[in-house]
Amino acid sequence: MRIVVLAGGIGGARFLRGLKAAAPDADITVIGNTGDDIHLFGLKVCPDLDTVMYTLGGGINEDQGWGRTGETFRVKEELAAYGVGPEWFGLGDRDFATHIVRTQMLGAGYPLSAVTEALCDRWQPGVRLLPMSDDRVETHVAIEDETGERKAVHFQEYWVRLRASVPALAVVPVGAEQAKPAPGVLEALAAADVILFPPSNPVVSIGTILAVPGIREAVAEAAAPVVGLSPIVGNAPVRGMADKVLEAVGVESTAAAVAKYYGGAERRPVEGGAGLLDGWLVDEVDADTVADVEAAGIRCRAVPLMMTDVDATAAMARTALALAAEVRK
Amino acid sequence: MRIVVLAGGIGGARFLRGLKAAAPDADITVIGNTGDDIHLFGLKVCPDLDTVMYTLGGGINEDQGWGRTGETFRVKEELAAYGVGPEWFGLGDRDFATHIVRTQMLGAGYPLSAVTEALCDRWQPGVRLLPMSDDRVETHVAIEDETGERKAVHFQEYWVRLRASVPALAVVPVGAEQAKPAPGVLEALAAADVILFPPSNPVVSIGTILAVPGIREAVAEAAAPVVGLSPIVGNAPVRGMADKVLEAVGVESTAAAVAKYYGGAERRPVEGGAGLLDGWLVDEVDADTVADVEAAGIRCRAVPLMMTDVDATAAMARTALALAAEVRK
Predict the structure, then answer these.
(1) Spatial separation of the C-alpha atoms in residues A102 and A119, rounded to whole Å
(2) Which residue in A74, A81, A101 is closest to B82 by CB distance?
(3) What is the largest CA-CA distance in chain A?
(4) CB B228 within 8 Å of CB B37
(5) Are the beta carbons of A94 and B75 separated by less than 8 Å?
(6) Cα gap B111→B46, rounded to integer Å
(7) Backbone angles phi, psi at A281, to 5 degrees
(8) What is the ipTM of this complex?
(9) Which of A237, A241, A245 is CA-nearest to residue A167?
């Protein structure tokens, strides 16, 4: 079974760990978000790709969900001693090595997809990890600063430094319009038996991947059923601050609203592009929204959606695969 | 008093520490060798500049004479886990930060001289540290490999990986002919009251600096007396493997031969360019060579030349300054 997963960072990575447990023999291709990539200290940092790679490769800091286990921060302390920041982005010494290798390879002319493959040679994540694009895409968030001036900040600055504490007026994946899907992305979608949207951020993670011209269309036109898992449980994000960026795109923080934001595959085309979802999982606490989602042409089930451990996550993945089988076109 | 010192790495840095103690009120400009600079992991590493900066700024690993004190090697271990080398060059985590800052600034368009000034803002070495040139110069060493093929290796590979264990057939400062002295270098030499050659390597340290067009001439034409200290004591290098590279330029490993290699200022021009030295210090054990050096037109004194501690080194520096006063033109 060929499964293609569009993944952001922590939520996507944890879901993938459950999916691997649920479908150990499946051939899994992950299309990773690179819109939150950032250049820090002259190095190319790919937080979402690395979170997937470290999580599936056994190198993740489990407590925080990103970064390496057993980290130290000597390099960062020294950079601060030189007065070189930002200090709000916590790169550890082990993590620095990944960015150094990546930057060196990019500088030597390798595309990000080849670099990611080389890094995965070490981590053996057990999936094929593809960046959504080899082209630079950088998600910016429009905010109002203290003086009321509107300005754009890098997504990481909004998310990590500001902790989404001010309203996101707009979310713009800068460069996405000119970006091309990385080699293998469209082919994987076309050949997939199942396409899954994990409970990742629908705007800045999966939304950014879908913003690369050709990817949304490839998902919509794929022969495979498309099933997603709601990142919103009981009207709040399970993790992170998805509500903040949902507000920016005018979408309520509810499981049903996110499903309609992706759009039902049977009702394509919807406003803003083709609808994508054949199936949608909401948490049990949102059971009352199932009818609403189904009315939008999306088969919906209410099941436990908390990724408390690998077993619970594997159960979610199995349910998603079962729903995919049920809605197979 | 304006003192200009042409310095390599460990020997130059330790001499400078003694010089600062001997002449605390002097205005010291250091022209640093950059021929042993190397690009590692995509980062620009300047071993000699950093050794001077760390030594005078209190950050040096005293035991080994290079690198930072209290180092850890997490980044290097991780790079090795990615299969990325070389492993023979021991960059520590703290040291990495210096190279990251430098590389980032160079990438942003700052010349090496401006980057060095910025790094010294933190270290406050108490001297003005100038790279010999903002242009890339890379010392290569010609050797015979196992099969008898002649090939060129980077100086660091010869020195650190091979530990100078094979004969150096030639030493070539690649790029030196096209290099220009860094801003301030010629001006400092012209305005100097004293010019000193510390007991640094006469071929790959001071020789490389002198290979930048304009610098040898500026030293030869300077109004200031030029006094050097022999790196060879009792026919062997005090430290390092200077004899190996002296052989490559056909110079015996003796204090007198090195003095004649630099050339006596009174006998300019000598073969290979203008003679440079007005005065030369040899160690007491080489007292019998004083007459030979003086016959070459170089005032010579035999004094203790072992830099065993700062006091001993300060005494050497005081003697060098006294000899400079004596030979002042």
Answers:
(1) 8
(2) A101
(3) 59
(4) no
(5) yes
(6) 13
(7) -105, 130
(8) 0.89
(9) A245
Buried b (16+ CB within 10 A) or exposed e, A226-246: bbbbbbbbeeebbbbbbbbbb
Coil, helix or strand at residue A101: helix
Query: How distant is the Cα of A63 from the closest Cα of chain B, in angstroms?
Result: 21
B-chain residues within 8 Å CB-CB of A81? 97, 122
How is residue A123 annotated by DSSP?
H
Closest CA to A227 of A29, A26, A1, A5: A5
Q: Count CB neighbours of B221 within 10 A.
A: 12
pTM of the model: 0.92
Q: How remote is the C-alpha of B294 from its chain's centroid? A: 25
pLDDT tens, chain B, 329 aa long: 999 999 999 999 999 999 999 999 999 999 999 999 999 999 999 999 999 999 999 999 999 999 999 999 999 999 999 999 898 998 999 999 999 999 999 999 999 999 999 999 999 999 999 999 999 999 999 999 889 899 999 999 999 999 999 999 999 999 999 999 999 999 999 999 999 999 999 999 999 999 999 999 999 999 999 999 999 999 888 877 888 899 999 999 999 999 999 998 875 544 555 689 999 999 999 999 999 999 999 999 999 999 999 999 999 999 999 999 999 85
A100 CA to chain B: closest CA distance, Å?
7
For residues A102 and B123, give the distance between their C-alpha atoms in angstroms, rounded to a whole number. 30
* Contact residues on chain B for A119, CB-CB shorter than 8 A: 82
For B271, the token pair is 């073969």
What is the rounded distance in angstroms from the CA atom of residue B278 to the CA atom of residue B267? 10
State both tokens at B276: 């440079």
CB atoms < 10 A from the CB of B273, how many? 16
Domains of chain B: 2-36+177-327 (3.40.50.10680)
Least Cα separation, residue A275 to chain B (angstroms) = 41
Contact A104 B122 (CB under 8 A): no
Running DSSP on this structure, what letter comes out for residue B182?
Answer: P
Q: Which of A79, A100, A122 faces B101 most closely, judged by CB atoms?
A: A79
Beta bridge partners of A283: A303
Put the strands of the sheet holding B128-131 in their side by side order. Answer: B128-131, B27-32, B2-7, B194-197, B226-229, B279-283, B299-303
